[in-house]
Design brief:
3 domains; mainly alpha; 13 helices; about 0% strand; about 300 residues
């Protein structure tokens, strides 16, 4: 019988989500820069066009199959990276999927990509916040995963110490006597002489993430992060308000110059080519105005230390 148990957040979830977020952002940026520098080349001929969204979908399938087929822990890192790149390649062409004309440069595409990135970043922050909570079941899940290193005869001192710390916490609780008994037996095995321990070795991905964490801790202190957010909120907010001011002046200006000015703004800058894209441009402009006001108010709140 198939039983649905409560979802348990992995102790390594922060690592995997961070890899996905970084891969997603990097794939979108690299793709956009590459296409801009190379003049938007196409793979195909007069009949076929192999869009990079297809390669994104292929990477997503590979990432899922990797998790389904293999049990090694390194597959989680690989799948996280492949999934991030795949989502980035797929969503980069979202403009083609929401328009009848398959318009890659549709004005609404950039905000959708931005929102998707923010959602993934929000998931990362939520998972990171949850990793400090105590969950006995999650600890035992993590221990069973790390026991793979014993099977591979590749258990490092750091990995053993991590498991011992988790097992000691589980063994010392009284809410789940069964888990406490299991933890004591595994703990006894890990501390026995029959377990071979190898010197600590850090993988390439591990070193990269450790560098990211060190940079985050060193550069993004609470005070600096606060000032950075204030600056970004003010720039983004004032930029949106300035754009709305220009449009407002264009609508309120001389009737002889208004059409030309609006044409330069709408057709030249926003790439509006139809009544539908014009409607979306106006909706996006209204949302930018609201966003600008909210960001400006947020910057004021940060300045007043109302966090």
């Amino acid at each position: 019988m198939f039983n649905l148990h409560r979802p348990v957040i992995s102790a390594s979830a922060t690592r995997y989500v961070l890899l996905t977020v970084l891969s997603f952002a990097a794939s979108v940026i690299v793709t956009r820069v590459y296409l801009e520098l190379t003049g938007y080349p196409q793979i195909g001929n007069d009949t076929f066009h192999f869009a990079h969204a297809l390669w994104g979908g292929l990477l997503l399938i590979i990432s899922v199959l990797t998790l389904l087929i293999f049990v090694n822990r390194w597959t989680y890192d690989l799948s996280s990276i492949l999934a991030g790149i795949g989502v980035g390649l797929f969503i980069d062409e979202v403009g083609k999927f929401i328009t009848q004309q398959n318009d890659y440069f549709f004005p609404l595409a950039a905000p959708i990509i931005y929102v998707a990135f923010l959602v993934m970043l929000l998931v990362y922050l939520i998972v990171k916040q949850r990793e400090t909570t105590t969950d006995l079941v999650a600890d035992m899940y993590q221990v069973t995963k790390e026991l793979e290193e014993v099977l591979e005869d590749d258990l490092s001192e750091c990995e053993r110490d991590s498991m011992v710390a988790r097992l000691q916490k589980v063994a010392g609780q009284t809410a789940r006597p069964d888990l406490a008994d299991l933890a004591k037996h595994i703990l006894q095995f890990l501390q026995s002489e029959s377990v071979d321990v190898v010197p600590d070795r850090t993988s390439l991905i591990g070193r990269f993430l450790d560098s990211c964490y060190r940079i985050e801790d060193r550069l993004f202190t609470q005070g600096r992060t606060r000032l950075l957010l204030i600056g970004l909120f003010l720039l983004d907010g004032l930029g949106a308000l300035f754009a709305m001011l220009v449009l407002g002046l264009a609508f309120a200006g001389d009737e002889t110059t208004m059409p030309t000015l609006l044409s330069d703004i709408v057709l030249g800058e926003a790439n509006v080519t139809s009544s539908t894209s014009l409607s979306w441009f106006l909706i996006m402009s209204a949302l930018q105005l609201v966003t600008g006001l909210l960001l400006f108010l947020s910057a004021v709140a940060f300045l007043r230390k109302n966090e």
